[in-house]
Amino acid sequence: MNFYSINWLAVLVASVASMAIGFLWYSPVLFATTWMRLMGVKCDTPEEKAAMQKEAGPMYAQTFVMTFISATFLALVITRMFVPSEDLLRGLKISFGVWLGFVATVQYTGALFTKRPKQLFLIDTGYQLVCYLVMGAIITKWQ
Questions:
Q1: pLDDT confidence band for 44 (50 / 70 / 90)
Q2: Are 11 and 139 in contact (CB under 8 A)?
Q3: Which of 7, 49, 76, 104 is 20 to 30 A (C-alpha) from 117?
Q4: How far from chain centre, in Å, is Cα 51?
Q5: Range of the domain at 73
Q6: Domains in the chain: how many in total?
Q7: pLDDT band, very low/low/confident/very high, at 37 (cuts 50, 70, 90)
Q8: pTM, full prediction
Q9: Which residues, 6+ apart, have CB-to-CB distance to 50 below 8 Å?
């Protein structure tokens, strides 16, 4: 693996963009209420809210690390496939393929065996699709 060919600033920006999308996606503006109901998350009392807030920082930090790893390997795939920065559509197709071939299939299998509602799968995998497309666009255009 040739990590020297990666634009690390693009990977960092793609990771931050993915986190920002997550903050919006799982906010009350979009899917927070439905997602919390489907997950069985309770945040009705001040104690429940405080417990959730206490756990948030470490979870966000770990999520950022995982997102950075995903963006790094997406950048490796895009650069190894010699996608020029002018070819945004090709970068998006690769990002979609990575999402469909690896992310969506794993999430769907997990949803099947944990017997989670299909709507929960659609919310979570929809978020991942948007993230991979945005990360792919940033990485492609900023090589």
A1: confident
A2: yes
A3: 49
A4: 24
A5: 3-141
A6: 1
A7: very high
A8: 0.91
A9: none
